[in-house]
Amino acid sequence: DAAKYLGKPVPVIENKDLADSILDKSQTVILQSGGMFYLTHAAKGGNLELQYDVSLNMRGSDKTTPDFALLTSYWYPSIARGAAISTTHIEGPKDWLLLSNGNLAAEKVDGDRKSVLYKNPVAVCFHEMVAGPYIEAYETQDRGRKFRAWQLTEDKTRAKHDAEMARDAVAFYEDRLGKFPYDGYDVVDTPDFYGVECYSFTILTPRITSWATSHEAGHTYFGGLVPNSYIHSIWNESLTQYIDSVQFKQNSDRSLNMGYTTRNTKIALSSPYLPHGPFGDVGYYRGAYVMKMLENEIGLDKMNGALRKLVSSRTGKMTEWSDIQKIFSDSTGQNLDWFFRQWVRGDTFPVISIGRIFSEKPPREGYETTISLSQSGSSEPFHLRLVAILQTDAGEVSFPVEFSEKSREFLFKTPGRPRRLTLDPFGWTLASVPSSIPIKQ
Fold first, then answer.
1. Helices 287-298 & 300-314, crossing angle to 10 degrees?
2. Sequence-distant (≥ 6) Cβ neighbours of residue 125 within 8 angstroms
3. How far apart are CA 359 and CA 244, in angstroms?
C-alpha cells in the first residue's frame, strides 16, 4: 500500500510493463514484480518501511481467518533469505494464543482484545506467527524454562509426551551445543499445515508431533542460531537430523539406515534442492549418515566440540558447507578436505569388490586369512573405512579396514577357522559392498 525509505515516501511501481517502468536517477522508487522488490539507491543503506495488508486462506498453508491465523515464510520482507532479528506485535481475541518467534516482551488485555509483543534477539531466516483458540494441554519446566503443548482438540497423553520431549531434547542439545537462547519452547498443533522450524516454538500437524518435536527444537541451533538461507543447500537439515536422530534418539527412527540407501542417488549433499523435493531424503538422511561417518572418523568428543564451535562462531552469520568444513578442520586440527570432497561435495560413490580370499593354518596357532579388496566406479580412489567380519569356528571377529588405493591386500589372524567373510559399511562409508561370501581353505 505504501513505502518509506530513509523516512520519506517512495513510489511503488507494481507489475508494470518495461515501457512504463523507466527509472529516474534523481528519484528513489521500488519496482515490484510478483513477490520480488527492487529498491533503487539501496546502497545508501538505512531503513525501508513497507505497509501492506492481506487476507489469506491457503489450504495447508498460510491463513488469516476469523477462526485461525498462520503466517510462515513469505509475509515479511527479506533480502535473499538473509537472517534478521525481529520484533512482532500481534493483536487478537483475548482468549487466543498469539505466538511468534522470540521471547514474550509484553502482553496487554483491553476488553475482549489482547495484544502481545515478541522480541527475537536471534537473527534467523524464517519468521512465523500462529494464533487461534488453543488449549494449553500440558506444561513442564526445566532449567528455568517452560515447555508447553498447545492443542485445538485436547489430547493430554500426546501433549505430555510432546512437551516432555521438547524439554529433554533442549537439555540434551544445550549440554552439547551451548546455551538455548529462549525462555522456553512451545509445541503447537495446526489444523492442516504440515510443520516447520520456528526456533522458540514449532507448528506441526498433530500426526507428527510425537516424532518431529525434537527435530524442530534442534533447528534452534542449526538454521536458527546458525542461519541457512536454503538458497545453496539444506545443510541445516543434515546437522539437525544427526543431532536429533543419531545422538538424541540413538537411531531409533532408522535415519542411518535410510541414509545408506541414498548412496546411489547421484546428487551431492552440498547441491541446492528443496527439503521436501525429490532429493529431500539426501539432505536429511544422507546428511545424518555422513555426519555419523565424520563422528567415526574424528571421535564423538571432537565431533561435539566442533559442533559447539560452529554454533558459537557462526551465530547470526549465513553459513554454508564450506564454513562447516573450515570449523571442523580448525577445531580438530585435521585436514578434512578429503572427507568433505568425497562425501559432501561428491555425488558418485565407489563399489567395493572382493578379489582373492584365502585362509590357511600357519605353523603356529590360529588361522591367517588373506583378502584382496578393490574399489571402482569413481573417478579416483576414495579414502575408505569399513569393518571386515570373519565368522569362525570360535566366534565372530571384526577387523577395521582402511585403504585409499584402487586395490589392497589385507591379512587377518583368527584363533578359529574362518568360514565366512562379511564387509560392514554401516556408519563408515557410502560405498556399496558385496554380499557375504564363504571362505575356502
1. 120
2. 78, 81, 82, 83, 223, 227, 228, 229, 230
3. 43
Classify the C-alpha dihedral 168-171-176-180 as positive or negative: positive
β-pair partners for 37? 32
CA 196, CA 100: separation in Å to the nearest integer? 13
Extended beta strands in 308-381, E state:
351-360, 367-376
- Tell me the β-bridge partners of 90: 116
Band the pLDDT of 310: cuts 50, 70, 90. very high
Q: How far apart are CA 441 and CA 422, in angstroms?
A: 17
Dihedral sign from CA coordinates of 250, 255, 259, 260: positive
Identify which of 373, 372, 382 has the alpha carbon closest to the alpha carbon of residue 431: 382
Q: Within 13 Å and on the Cβ side, how many CA atoms surround 239?
A: 31
In sequence order, which residues have a C-beta less than 8 Å from that of residue 213 and are 6 or more positions away? 162, 165, 166, 169, 187, 202, 204
Read off the pLDDT of each residue in 429-434 and give the average, rounded to a whole number: 98
Under a CB-based contact definition with an 8 Å cutoff, are residues 343 and 291 in contact?
no
Q: Which amino acid makes up residue 30? A: I
Q: How does DSSP assign 332-351, residue by residue?
A: HTS--HHHHHHHTS-----E
Q: How far apart are CA 224 and CA 125, in angstroms?
A: 7
Q: Name the nearest CA neighbour of 69 among 172, 243, 200, 191.
A: 191
Alpha-carbon Rg of the chain, whole angstroms?
Answer: 27
Predicted confidence (pLDDT) per residue in 154-207, tens digit: 999 999 999 999 999 999 999 999 999 999 999 999 988 999 889 999 999 999
**What is d(CA 43, CA 309) in angstroms, rounded to the nearest whole number?**
33
